[in-house]
Amino acid sequence: MEPISQGPEGIMVESMLIGMAEYYSAELALKVARGERENALQCKYNGGVVPLGFTIGKEDRLYHIDPETAPIVQEIFTRYADGEPAEKIAASLNGRGLRTRTGKPFVKNSFFQIFRNRRYIGEYRYKDIVTPGGIPAIVDQDLFDRVQQRFEQNRIAHGRPAKEDVRYLLTTKLFCGKCGTLMGGESGTSHMGNTYYYYKCGNA
C-alpha cells in the first residue's frame, strides 16, 4: 500500500479510511448485540460461567439439566432449607470429593451465588429479557423461597449488630443489569465512621 500523501488529498483519504474503520467496527458491534438478543429471546446460552447443575447443548445452545451435578444443587437447597449450617454442608460435599463449577472446594460463600440464582427455578434472564420457564428448573419455587427466607434471616443475624434494624426491601427483586444475577443487600463503613447500605451483584 502506498503511503498517504501529506497534501489535501491525503487528508481526505485518511479521513475516509478512519470513517470506514469506525463504520465496520460499529456494524460488527451491532451484529453481535443483535445476535445476543436473538439468542436471549430463544433462551439460548449467551456466554459466562454455566451454573452448577446445568450443561449447554453443543448444537442447540440451550440449557440442559446435568444428571451428575443437578442432584448436588438439589441437595444443597434442601439441606439448607431444612436448617443445616452452610459450613456443615460444604464440609460434607468436600468430604465426598465434590467440587464447585470452577473446580474448587465448597466454602460457605460458595452458596451465595447458588442460592440467589433464579435459573435454578427455570427463569432465563439476559439484560432486560426475562423468561420464566425458559430453562429447565432444578428446584421448585417453594424450596427456593424457603432458602431465600433463611438465607436473608441468617445474613441479617450475623452480618450486623442486633440493635440495628435495616431492611433491604428489594431483596429477591433486584437483578444485576449486566449478568442478571440477583443482588443482595450489603453494608460498609467509611473512614469517617459512616455506615452505608447498598446492593451488590451475587457474582461480584
Automatic annotation (TrEMBL):
UniProt organism field: Faecalibacterium prausnitzii
A GO MF label: DNA strand exchange activity
Record InterPro entries: DNA_bind_recomb_sf (IPR038109), DNA_bind_recombinase_dom (IPR011109), SSR_resolvase (IPR050639)
A Pfam family annotated for this UniProt entry: Recombinase
TM segment ranges: none
Domain of life: Bacteria
Occurrences of domain Recombinase (ranges): 51-157
Protein name, as recorded: Recombinase family protein
PROSITE patterns for this protein: RECOMBINASE_DNA_BIND (PS51737)
